[in-house]
Each structure stands twice: as C-alpha cells, then as structure tokens.
TrEMBL record:
This is Caffeoylshikimate esterase. InterPro entries: AB_hydrolase_fold, Hydrolase_4, MAG_DAG_Lipase. It comes from Sesamum latifolium. Residues 40-282 form the Serine aminopeptidase S33 domain. Pfam families: Hydrolase_4.
Amino acid sequence: MPEEEYYASQGVRNSKSYFETPHGKLFTQSFLPLDPTLPIKATVFMSHGYGSDTGWMFQKICMSYANWGYAVFAADLLGHGRSDGIRCYLGDLNKVAAASLCFFKSVRVSDEYKDLPAFLFGESMGGLATLLMYFQSEKDLWTGLIFSAPLFVIPEPMKPSKVHLFMYGLLFGLADTWAAMPDNKMVGKAIRDPEKLKIIASNPRRYTGKPRVGTMRELARQCEYVQNNFDKVTVPFLTVHGTADGVTCPTSSKMLYEKASSEDKTLKLYEGLYHSLIQGEPDESANLVLADMRAWIDERVERYAPKCNGSSWSMDQDHLSMLKMDVEVGRPNRRYMWQVTYCFLRLSRFTFSSTLGNKMS
C-alpha cells in the first residue's frame, strides 16, 4: 500500500522533510488530521527513545494525537533514524536536544501555529531530551509537557560501570564513540506484547549494537543534572510510568512529580505495565494510557486557549484585524475563525449560566 494511502487509512496526513540545524541535519515528520478543514486544537512536538526513530511503532503515538485533532511534529534525534550523527552516539545531549528544539521552535513560532497551545512530548530517553529542551527554552514558550516512561533515573542494573568509564576515560576521549559498554538487552524488558516485540525488532533503523561509552557517560551526567533541577519545572505536565518498567525507573516520574514547582501536575502509574506503554503493551493496556493522555491534554487545551475569561473576550485586536483582512480579500483564515467561534460559544455559555443563576436567585 502506498504511504499516502496508508496514512489516510489511519485518519492522518503525513509529510516528511529534512531540517538543517547548527548541530546537524534532522529527519522530521508531521502528522495532521486527515480533514484539512477541521480546526487544530494545539501543537504537540514529540521525541522518541534510545535507539528508536519517529517511524515504525513510535508513529502510533503521533497518529493517535493527530486523530484527536492535534498537529504533531516529530524529529529523529541526532544519531538516530535518518538524522545526522554516529548511530546512537549521544556524547553531548545538550546539543542533541538543541537540534530538535531548533526544528520544534521553527514550527511553534510560525504564523500558522504561534497562537495555539504547544506541548512537548518525550518517551523514555526522549523524555530526558524533552526536559533539556524545556530548560533551554524561553519562558512561556510551552503550554505543557507530557512524559511517557521518562529516563530521569537510571535503574541500578542499567547504570554504566564507573570502572569502565574510568578506564575508557584514560584514553582522553578516543574511546568515546566505541560501542563497548555492557548491553543489558533493553528491548525484551520494554515490550510485553510478543507480536509487537517482533514488529519493533524488525525495524531496520533501530540501533541494536552495544551502548557507546560517551552515550552512557552522558546519560548518567544528564540524569543527575535534571534531578537537581526538577524544581525549575513550572508548566503543567503529565508523566506516566508502568510499575514493571525494566528500562527506566518509575522513580523518575515520582521524583519529577514531587519536586517540580508546577501547580498543575499529574502522575499516573500503571500496575504491571512495562516500559513501552503504547507501542509495546497489549491494545487494551495501550488504549488505557492513550485515553488518559487524551483526557489530560484536552482538558489543558480547554483551560489554556483561546483565552475567554468569564464574560470578557480576551482575543486581541491583532487577531481580529487578521481575520477581517482575510475575509475582505476572500480568504477566510479557518484558525482565527475557529477562535472567534470558540470564544463566542464560551461567552454564550457564560451568559446563559449567569442569566439562569440570576433567575433562580
């Protein structure tokens, strides 16, 4: 089946492109609702986990959000998939995060999407990269964060040996890219559904070699860094974890929830679920996680955009002028028309409730 037909059968439109950053070229994808006339609720920017990419099974998450009315944008992290870099070498995770952030920001501030709520989404090691992107971003750039089994704490069996790191460190960085660290076979600890495990294992772009020396050193360093900076997280966030996760610690999500300064924060733990909560669980469990994610993000979109506070309509005059100009030249801007309609509906509901309350009193 041609790709376009496949994505249409899944209810989405997909596009692929490359994006140049100061740190290397990224392979990027977008997933939009199939019907272009439908209003976009918000933008979601997604980062995959270690050794993976934005295709294969990860795109199941992207397509799910697109089916809910969101514009989804994803990039293969540097060193992964079809992006630049040595395969699965993460010697400087700040640069890896900065590269993806370059692409995400270019979309986030574009005329088409700049007035919509915007969320960062990170799975596993992509959760660590996502949190670094958040720390690198300007204040108020992001509406919220979503984490799926994030890597903020490395489980004891997965921690890099200090002896190994010390010995390789004596080579003055020459061993940094060596795939020489012990391999703990993470895939079998991440996927509970055997049929989905077969599909994931057949991904030709999945990295199957041993972890690289510099990668493990950097992951350990950055995990310690974010743990010491959890209190700097102030935006709304959702973090979800399976209690039987054998790749990342549920402690990661618990620590973030306890230490973050956000007033709006949600932690969900799923008893008995493995690491890959959506791609790797039986459909019944995966759908439960997706339903919780949908409920959370839909509620935040309702809460944070567009702004209609009580009986006051807070859409600014620039938006109204743009709508007026588009209509005058015979080119209606659907997004601004949707915002106007949305605010009128909210205002009408408020007015009706107030009137009813006055009559009852």
